[in-house]
Design brief:
single chain; 97 residues; alpha+beta; three-stranded antiparallel β-sheet; 61% helix
Amino acid sequence: MSALDSLLKELEDKANDATKGPWDWLFNGDTTYVGPTDNQRLITFDQMNMEGDAHFVAIANPDTVKKLIEVIRRMMRQLDWEREEVLEDCEKIVSGE
């Protein structure tokens, strides 16, 4: 298993174990809360750049991560298929077919 495969597997496992998305964020003046859109808040930010952090965490929810993983895997399969096609074409050229 490649390093990328291992990373994707780890991300997928963590996303599957996390609270399902989509997530949203709420700022109440002093604190920013992040969590599912059903008002269940999982993460609290009360530091500098809390709004930016909250936006990022909300968009990088488990559903989004799983969609990105699937796109990466689909692209990897496509590249593998294209690589095989090129190798077959090269073998035909070399063998004079």
